Amino acid sequence: MKRISLVLVFILSLAPLRSLAVVQERASTLADRQAVNLTIYNDGTALIHDRRRVSLNAGLNRIAWRDVSASMDPTSAVLDALGSGARVSVLEQNFDYDVLSQASLLSKYVGRDVTVVHPAQFAGDRERRETARILSVDGGIVLQYRDRVETTLDGRIEFPAIPSSLRDRPTLALDLETPNSGSQVLDLQYLTNGLSWSVAYIGSLSRDESRMNLTGLVTLTNSSGTSYPDARLQLVAGNPHISTLQFAKGEVQPGTTADVYSVGAVRQEDYFVYHLYTVGHPTTVLDKQTKQLTLLSARDVPVTKTLELRGEPSYYRRADADLGDRLPVSVYVSFVNRGGDLGIPLPAGAVRVYENDSRGLSQYLGSDDIGHTPRNDTVRLQLGDSFDLVARKRQTNFQWLSSCRTASSYEIDFVNGKDAPQDVLVVEPIPGDWSISEESQPHTKSSASTATWTVHVPADGRTKLTYTSNVSWCR
Q1: pLDDT averages per 10-residue partition of the chain, 475 residues
Q2: CA neighbours within 13 Å on the CB side: how many for 82?
Q3: Domain 304-337+378-472 falls in which CATH fold?
Q4: Radius of gyration over alpha carbons of the chain, in Å?
Q5: What residue spans define the domains of the chain?
Q6: Is 58 helix (H, G, I), strand (E, B) or coil?
Q7: Cβ–Cβ < 8 Å for 409, 437
Q8: Measuring CA to CA, which residue among 119, 114, 147 is closest to residue 133?
Q9: What predicted TM-score, i.e. pTM, was given to this entire model?
Q10: What is the C-alpha separation between 199 and 220, in angstroms, rounded?
C-alpha cells in the first residue's frame, strides 16, 4: 500500500509540469523594475539584486525575465517573493544567452529550408523567389537548391520564423507556481562577471610640498551585456572566496557594522573582513560604458618628502669594488591615513601626484601603486629620482675575519647641484648578525636588518659618508 501511495504522489507531482507546455509566456522588462542593486567586487565579480513587480496568475506561470547580464552564473540565480503573504515556487529556470543575430539565425536553420529572394536582373523584371536548404554556414554559406548547390548568395534570405531558442537579448526563463493571482514584487539575485571597478587617486602637492589635496576616483566598467538604470551601487574592497560566500535574501545586508563613515556622496562601512562603499545616489550604469565616481576628497593632508638612497644586501657577501657611479637618489612622499577627510580604508589603486609650477599650471611629478590601506597606516609613494642629487658608491675594503665573519668598508659620495641644502636617507639592508664598527656619522638601527643614516648635503656642495660593517654569517 505504501508503494502505491508513493507512485501516486510521483504521478501527481508531474501533472503541473506537463501542463506548462500550454502556459503562455509573458515577458518582464525594465519597465517592471522597482529597483536594482549592484555590489561589485575587486575580482570582477558582481552580485545583482533585480527587483521587479510582476503580474502572476494563480497556478503556473512562465516568465521571460529579460535584460539580465549576459555573463551571469545561472547556477547562482535565486528568486524571492517579497512582502507579507507572498509565495512563489520556482519549478524550472533556463538561461537563454544565445542572442539573436544574423549568424545565430543562420546557424539555427542549418538543415532547414528557407526562401532565397533573387534581385531583378533588368529594369521592369520582378524579384525571383526560390526555396533552398542551408547546408552549412561554417566559413561561408552553402545553399542546396532543387537542381544545384551554391556557395554564394546574390540576394536575401527570408526565414519563416525566429526559433524559440533565440532571444533578442539575454533572458532568464522562469517557470513559477503561486497560489494567488495578482502582482507581486520579485527579487532576482545572481552573480555575474563583466562588471569591474578600480580606484585611481590624484594628489596635488602644495608649493612648499608640505601638504597635499587627495582625490579618489572610482572607475567602473560594464561589459556584462545589459544596462542598469538608476542602480544602487556598492563596491567591496577585499577578496572574498566567491564559491563559498553566502548572500542574504531579500534586502541586501552588509553584515555586522562596526564603523561607518560618510565621505562626500560615498558611505563606507566594515563588511565582514572587507570594506563596503555605498554610493549615496542612484547612478545609471550603461552596457559597454566606463564611468567615474568620486570616492573621497581630502584637503590639506600633511605629507613628508624624503630623498632616499637604498642599498642591496648582496654586496655584503662579496668583494665588489665599484657599486655604482651617478646612482639615482629616489624621492618619496608619504602620509598617514588618518585625520581630516581621511581615516577611511583606502582601496588599492594608482596614485598620481601633481604640483603647480610658477605660473599655476599643474605638472605631473610621478605615480606609484598602493595596496589596500587601513586606517592609521602610512602610505609611501615613490615618485621618481632626483635630477640634481646623485651619489657614487664604492666598497673600499672586504675581508674574511674567520670562516663565519666578514668586514667590509664603504664610501658614498653625494653631489648636490641645487642652490639649497638637501638631506638624504641612506638605507642599507644588512644581512646576518651585523654591527657598524666605524662610521663618519652615527647611524640608526631602523630595523633588525637595516641601518639608516641621515646625510646633510650642502647647497652646490658634496658630502661623503664612510662606514665599516661587521657581519656574522653563522648561527
Answers
A1: 40 47 83 94 91 94 92 91 84 82 87 92 85 92 93 90 78 91 93 93 94 93 92 85 42 35 62 82 92 90 95 88 87 91 87 93 94 92 93 94 92 94 95 94 94 96 96 85
A2: 18
A3: Immunoglobulin-like (2.60.40)
A4: 35
A5: 16-97+167-194+215-295, 102-158, 304-337+378-472
A6: coil
A7: no
A8: 114
A9: 0.72
A10: 9
